[in-house]
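Revision sheet: structure tokens.
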Amino acid sequence: MEFVFKKPTMDDVEVFRNILKNNRYPGCEFSISNIMLWAEFYHMEYAICEQVLISKHVTEDGKVRLSYPIGAENEMTERRIFDMELEYFEGLGQTPWFGLIEPVMYENIENWYPGRFEITYERDWADYIYNREKLTNLSGKKLHGKRNHIKRFQEQHPEWTYETLSEENVEACVAMAKNWCRANCCKEDDEKQEEFHLVVRALRNFRQLHMRGGLLRTKEGVVAFTLGSPISADTFDVSFEKAYADIQGAYPMINQQFVLHELQDYVYVNREEDLGVEGLRKAKLSYYPELLLEKGTCKEIE
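Predicted:
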């Protein structure tokens, strides 16, 4: 059986979603929203084989990089699809090269083919995974500062409300995203501009993408919102989070309230990578992740 790779469309949402119900790996790349929203930006294509999903990325120099098989019901199926990927590379005449490989994935590969592959982890790609209960309660000395920021927000905005994202308030979030983009010079930054368009697309298609979201409203209007989608049965991926930086406590407040109201049926919350951005890294570390999920590229030793 040959792989047939193609760019995902909204017509693929339910097919992919059914496959991902079997996903056992917590990396953020295989939430349904990330697949659908970021495929074009990262030039990703996907193939389904035996109800298992794999992705393909072609680098600027024409090299193909595949993902580990996702959604398999058992390790036997994972290995069978992985072996097919090796045959695919052989047909290309290229050394096998896999991306976004998590430590457990590499352990499997090493068990199947001892000493044949080596992995290089990229710190900037590591996902920050948190315990949902800790994000809800923010208990302990380490998170005392977060509680203080939230208290300050509540004191300065006694009329604040939290709302679950719905058809009735989604356009208010779109308007807030536009204001945020103007305030953060998105037009001068291609990546910020691209993310803005993806945020708007996510908001306006949140039902079809099976995304959950929430927002904070004060007397000034919407001041923060967030949304994401499941990665696996026990892990939720927060894809987007926006708040006005000049409103003290808005970020920790939307973080906590979203988890409190929407994510109580999950054990872990993946808040994705920092991409090497110093401020983002500091902010994510300040919540003391349960796991810093390493990811890297795995290549056959030549």
